[in-house]
Model the fold of this input.
Amino acid sequence: MTSRKSKFQRWALRGDSGQALAETAFTLPLLFVMLLGGVELGRAAYVATEVTNAARAAAQYGAMNGGGFLDQSGMLAAANADAGNLGGGLQWASGYPSVSCSCSGTGTASCAAGTDPSGCVGSQLLVTVNVQLKYSLNAVFRVRGLPTTYTVYGSASQGLLQ
Done:
């Protein structure tokens, strides 16, 4: 019987005792990097939601009172007030805000300031305020080979009937 115990003891102590420690040592850095990447991705998703909601607030401000779309500084102030957690770094994307006009029926519409919307014969003037904002997001965790700043865009459209 002693020979069987000694064979079992030799089998149990073959040198596998450090394998779990070695596997843990190799996988912990990978898991840590994945955790940091998840935090950075979650932060970027949050900022994208904030920028989109701020664009919606700017479009709604522009659709107010019939001529709010002419007040670009007021629209940007409304967007920055809506996205207070971003610290006021919102900017207009190039070409925005823009306004498009059409008639609900026949006629030709013009969005120019001071023009008479009576070009829509027997129909309503439909004005759509289009907004696109951008925000520069600085990466918290910097990795060589990846950019340190990301630009996040948010857009919204709001229609109004005049």
